[in-house]
Automatic annotation (TrEMBL):
GO CC annotation: cytoplasm
Domain RlmM ferredoxin-like, chain residue ranges per copy: 1-71
Enzyme Commission number(s) from the entry: 2.1.1.186
Compartmental location: Cytoplasm
Catalysis performed (reactions): cytidine(2498) in 23S rRNA + S-adenosyl-L-methionine = 2'-O-methylcytidine(2498) in 23S rRNA + S-adenosyl-L-homocysteine + H(+)
Name recorded for this polypeptide: Ribosomal RNA large subunit methyltransferase M
Positions with a binding annotation for S-adenosyl-L-methionine: 188, 221-224, 240, 260, 277
Length: 366
């Protein structure tokens, strides 16, 4: 198997391809990306056979912005016979993978694939049984073993491959399934919820999304993001000139500051989270976030960056590199992660966690 498949939002194949080509090049792995507009996936074909496996081991999945999933795949299986689709699929995996922990039968995230998805759900059961009999798949699901992916791009037509559970998306089709809470004031509440699922490991939620933490929400109205923080029993400074949802104000956990988010400065040193959904120039938002982190006004930040019309990957990578550099120059050790989330359209979501500051006397809350 010498190809990797990357799932992405339809319409963002070029960005996904630019990113994987860049990251593979940094590892001196060469190949070429095959892109079909609006297909919802990209294939990167390596010149060297064993390089595909190396790529999915060595490129940290968490560092990819546009890819929702990353897996090694073999040649496309075409014209699978409705009488026996299973044998050719299982045949692709013999000698490639043993005792995988999970099977996911998936499709690209496109409208055309919706019908196919129904078939995938039904097909999973007999395919799983066959794989278990052949010892390709363990009897019990095991989240620390590789995942087998069967990726149908059309009826009777699929890629078969695998990903590593320590370097992939844990979600089916790379998309966390979230339900819109009916009492939330806006649909964008799901963006922040998805960001928590993607950026914060579940075993750290109790500490990093703990009740009683203080948060600032810049560009908060009507309150979809604040809702997520309030739901976790946090205390929120909501900054926006617009109207905040009354039900959120009634909780007593929200203080509304009707001022410019670029001018707001916290008067207290207890802010853990900064979240920001102001629609502004990406460079301006990135600079504001860097200022907050350098000043030690928050420990973690989640914010949206609007994507430019052209060279979207290059622009975003440039903004993030600039931020990283600025933090380093100020002695701040931080983890920066960015993702084009399922609920993002023409923007990406960035998460920055301040680990420590080299300067003991910095104005921080370390
Ligand atoms: C996309 S909406 C935020 C939606 C919100 N996150 C939610 O989930 O309900 C953007 C908000 O940013 C606010 N905004 C834009 N520029 C701002 C600024 N300079 N200062 C404060 N708020 C700003 C707008 O008033 C608007 O309410």
């Amino acid at each position: 198997m010498n190809k990797i498949a990357l799932y992405c939002r339809p319409g963002f194949e070029k960005e996904c391809a630019a990113e994987i080509t860049d990251k593979a090049g940094q590892k001196e792995i060469y190949g070429f990306a095959r892109v079909k507009d609006n297909s919802g996936y990209v294939l990167f074909e390596c010149y060297q056979h064993e390089d595909a496996d190396r790529l999915i081991r060595e490129i940290p999945f968490r560092e990819l912005i546009f890819a929702r999933q990353m897996l090694v795949v073999g040649e496309l299986l075409r014209d699978l016979s409705p009488e026996d689709r299973i044998s050719p699929i299982v045949g692709m995996l013999h000698g490639v993978i043993e005792r995988a922990g999970e099977l996911r039968v998936e499709v690209p995230d496109t409208n055309e694939s919706k019908e196919l998805l129904k078939f995938c759900r039904k097909f999973t059961v007999p395919l799983r049984n066959a794989m278990r009999q052949e010892k390709i798949l363990q009897i019990k699901e095991n989240t620390s073993r590789p995942v087998i992916h069967v990726f149908f791009i059309a009826p009777g037509c699929c890629y078969v491959g695998y990903s590593y559970s320590n370097n992939n998306s844990p979600f089916y089709m790379g998309i966390p399934r979230l339900k819109f809470p009916s009492d939330a004031p806006s649909r964008s509440t799901l963006k922040l919820e998805e960001a928590f699922h993607v950026f914060i490991p579940y075993d750290e939620w109790e500490e990093r999304l703990a009740s009683g933490l203080y948060a600032v929400d810049l560009g908060a109205c009507p309150g979809g993001w604040t809702y997520q923080l309030v739901k976790r029993s946090m205390m929120v400074h909501a900054v926006d000139n617009g109207p905040m949802s009354q039900s959120l104000m009634d909780t007593g956990q929200v203080r509304h500051h009707k001022i410019d988010g670029f001018k707001f400065q916290p008067s207290v040193k207890n802010i853990y989270w900064l979240v920001c959904d102001m629609v502004e120039k990406p460079a301006k938002v990135t600079q504001l976030m860097a200022d907050w982190l350098v000043n030690g006004w928050c420990r973690e930040a989640i914010f949206n960056l609007k994507l430019p019309m052209k060279k979207r990957y290059e622009e975003v990578a440039h903004n993030l590199q600039k931020m990283n550099l600025q933090l380093k120059e100020n002695g701040i050790n931080a983890q920066i992660q960015a993702k084009h989330l399922y609920h993002d359209r023409e923007e990406i979501t960035v998460h920055v966690r301040r680990i420590w500051s080299a300067y003991a006397n910095s104005r921080n809350n370390d």
